[in-house]
Each structure stands twice: as structure tokens, then as C-alpha cells.
């Protein structure tokens, strides 16, 4: 620690600070208010997801082709939290769009998608018994309604595909 060369310890601290800052920005979008005309820049979204991917259980690929509405990014971030719950060992999440249809694909070596939680989203059941660690499942139906979207889900042994 006496020379000016960056050490492995300092790099680890820097990465941790970047990840924590990205998580805060992620939560602000996921749980914050979003107006119907508010937009989020592609660079902001990719910066948050890139920082969260460093050293984390998940990697994120943001392949959305146009500047997204904040309502849509809010949906994406809430859904990413659902994926984090369903893939306990981590994995990869790819987000893309064709026109107004967004596709989310989460892959991992083990999928633990509790049907009661995922069914609640598709059937517009935002109320019910969810633990604090599952609050994103309770918020997602209302966010879908606010954004004027519906959701379809396909779950297999190693992949979850969601279209909104």
C-alpha cells in the first residue's frame, strides 16, 4: 500500500462501491414513480446493468433497440428481480424488443419458479401473502397495468421466457 500502483484490494473496494451505487439506481427505477412520458437513456440502463454484472451472480444483456419509457424499464427491473428470486445460483438475463413487444430470457442451471408467485403476475393478483423478499412479485401486476401491458411466461428446467 506504499506505492501508487492500484492494488487488488483497492480494485475490489472500487468494484463493490460501483455495484452498490448501481443497485441503488436500479432500486430507484424499480420502486420509484414513473410518469407516462418519462424516458430513460440507453446509456443509463446499460451502465446500471453492467455495474451490477461485475462480480455478481447474474449477467445482463440489454438489447433494446430504442430509448425506453421509464414505465417499461421499471417493468424490466421488477422482472429482473423476479428472475433473481427464481434462479438461486444466478444466470444470464437477456432483454430485447421487436417493436413494442419485449422479450426477457433468463437462463441458469437451476430454475425455482414458484407457481403461486408467477401465476399471481399473469392473473393480475397483486394482493396476497408475499414475503418482503418477494415484494417485486406483488408490485409487478400493478406496474403492468400502469404501462398498459400484459405478460406471458414460459418456464422450463433451465430457462424462463417472458413477453410483455
Describe the structure.
This protein is α+β, with helices and mostly antiparallel strands. 45% of the residues lie in helices and 18% in strands. The chain has 5 helices and 5 strands, in the order H-H-E-H-E-E-H-H-E-E. It has a 5-stranded mixed β-sheet. Helix 3 links the parallel strand 1 and strand 2. Helix 1 packs across helix 2, helix 1 crosses helix 3 and helix 4 runs parallel beside helix 5. The longest helix is centred in the first third of the chain and has 24 residues. It is globular and about 60 Å long. The protein starts with 7 loop residues before the first helix and ends with a strand. The model has no long low-confidence stretch (mean pLDDT 89).
Furnish the topology, listing elements before pairings.
Elements: H1 8-31, H2 42-53, E1 58-63, H3 70-86, E2 91-98, E3 101-107, H4 115-122, H5 135-147, E4 152-155, E5 159-163
Helix pairs in contact: 1-2, 1-3, 3-5, 4-5
